[in-house]
Amino acid sequence: PPVSIWYLSLPSLFSSNPRDFSLPNSSWGTEMRQLYEHYNSQCEAVTDGGEEQSGLWNRLPSYNRSLKYAAGGVYLSKIIQAKARLFTRNIRDPGAAFEYVIFANKKEQRCVCIFQAGHLLEGPPGNVHGGAIATMIDTVTGTHACVHSGPVMTANLNINYRSPIPLGSTVLIESSLDKKEGRKTLVKCKVTSADGARLHTEATALFVSIGVSQLIQG
């Protein structure tokens, strides 16, 4: 079956205060922090005076339980296992696995993810496992498709690995909208070194729009 990916923000109607995993923590290296500040400084924001400040980018919050915080989440959370957690956010030890933050640019139809790979993601000695890279590409392109088209599921993911990613390094995962055809959303993606000089991976992804009833039925 296709992989389900949702982009969900926390609506104000919930009184709980879940952890936002996209915010900086002590495990983030210098490159991760510098890139975060670069994009975060270009985000929409509210000034101390209450005025809205425009920006090209929006930082997307990231929680470890997606459906619990969806619109109508009070109902949806009852149909999944109580211990279910988002795959990329199920390890609480900072820096051990997937450390990432995604920024979306709706005007330019782009998303960028700053990803720092932890020691638990090893494949070839000293390098990131190809499955972990595929997971992050699926996460970023799926999030991008959801921002553009609403709830979607992955229908196809094609990946070309160009060069290994060293464990502990920070990379950029950039996605751009290719085209939209009815229920289909096609996204292109590339993974590069933090400075953009080295190409690690290229990918294309196809997503199909779905209704909430389809997600519930699996």
Descriptive account of the structure:
By secondary structure, this protein is α+β, with helices and mostly antiparallel strands. The chain has one domain (30-42, 54-62, 72-215): Hotdog Thioesterase (Thiol Ester Dehydrase, Chain A, Roll), CATH 3.10.129. Helices cover 19% and strands 31% of the residues. The chain is built from 4 helices and 10 strands, in the order βαβββαββαββββα. The protein has helices at residues 30-40, 73-76, 130-149, 212-217; strands at 4-5, 45-46, 52-53, 58-60, 98-105, 110-117, 152-161, 170-181, 184-193, 199-209. The strands form 2 sheets. The chain has an 8-stranded antiparallel beta sheet with strand order 1-7-10-9-8-6-5-4. Strands 2-3 form a two-stranded antiparallel ribbon. Strand 8 and strand 9 form a beta hairpin. The longest helix is centred in the middle third of the chain and has 20 residues, at 130-149. Mean pLDDT is 85; it is low at 1-15 and 68-75.
Which structural traits does this protein have?
8-stranded antiparallel beta sheet, disordered N terminus, two-stranded antiparallel sheet, alpha+beta, 218 residues, 4 helices, single chain, Thiol Ester Dehydrase, Chain A
Brief summary:
With 218 residues, the protein is of the alpha+beta class.
Number of helical regions: 4
Top CATH class: Alpha Beta
Kindly report how far apart the N and C termini lie. Answer: 9 Å
**Mean pLDDT figure:** 85
Helix content: 10-25%
Order of helices and strands: EHEEEHEEHEEEEH
User: What profile does the largest beta sheet have?
Assistant: 8 strands, antiparallel
